[in-house]
Input
Amino acid sequence: MEALIRSFFNFDILAQAWPILLAGFWMTLLLTLAVVPLGFAGGLAVSLLSTARSRVLKSFVIGYVDFFRAFPPLVLLMLVAYGLPFLDIRLGAFGSVALAFFLNTSSYYGEILRAGIESVPRGQLEAARSTGLSALQAMAWVVLPQAVRNVVPDLISNTLEVIKLTSIASVVALPELLHAAREAQALTYNATPIIAAGIIYLVCLWPLVRLLSRFEHRQIALH
Amino acid sequence: MGHFADTFLNWAVMAQYAPKIVEGTWVTIRLALAVVIAGIACGLFLSVLRAFRFRAVNFFIVFAVDVLRALPPLVIIIAFYFALPAVGVRMSAWVSTWLALSLVLMAFSEEIFWAGILAVPRGQWEAARSTGLSFLQTLRDVVLPQAVRLTIPPLTNRTIAITKNTALGAVVAVGEILYQAQSAYSFSYNPSPLLLGAAAYLILFIPVVYFGRWIETRFAWKR
Output
């Protein structure tokens, strides 16, 4: 028990590691605030393109989504971070993570939003158009608000996954929370920082998990 | 163009490292299968245990599931591999990755199975019990078959997402595809092996993504 406390819940070590962990936490937050809106915007574009009439455009979008959903995100990140510099495209760690996450999350958000748009009855669009709204207006003011509302649980679930996924940025040495924890572990030669990082993730993400499990039960019960 | 081909599609480098990538592919397949089997079996077991509605047990299950859903999988893998040895628990990289991902899949599948069990109308329970079936028989022969059918689409998608996380094993040097590709890249200082690894993932996972799509339409929930 004493060994457990000394190695995992050591307050002296935690006090030493705290500034590093805090900096890592801010980086994780910054990363989340960058990749979630970017991915969502990309997903919106993907879902709108998939409603297009053009066959070519449609199959291109489906290809894009399937392609990036088949890649494990870490593989995509390594390709971007280590491959692109050979083309003289240097994005830096943050830029590489942002690009890889954009490609990955826009596919997932795109799939979710497409399902949302398809769940809105066609009559809604037709009624909106017949009142004189343009196609764009009808989409923006009538179809999308209902579409988004129908897939809120999936959107939250995906957002939770994206936030958790930011931890892979540690692999390309972006100093986010997990990277900070490993660095602090190496400096202090003690595992407390890793446990502390786990607890920080837990405290921040638990409310989202609770919220989601409510939604899921309601959704499957309503089937 | 010649430069591009030399850099990214260097046949000599690819031919040299292709056997390593193939070796890694087998490791990925074995790891993924082991995770799927252990994760889903444990998840089903926990959801059945939860159906007995022992207060203390259920509190513990909900807590464990929430923690496993809130923590990034990479954090769990790293905690198992780098933190647990501090208290004398040592496991190989393969076991750390397998155990971490199985626990995560267990948590998600438990939630999904439990939602499925809740979705079976109470009348089914009552009718089955009144015909003389025991609690266990009712659960096994009446409730679970209906519940599992409901859970197939969300479970398939979640399982696919978690099997892709086998790539995270590369971080603790499990010799799967990404690790092999990455070490070949470092030896040759040429990104061709990374592309080869990416191709291996596409070959493995594109059929899986399509299978997921098919399952989704085949077992679609009626909204």
About this structure: The mean pLDDT of chain A is 92. Chain A has one domain: 2-221.
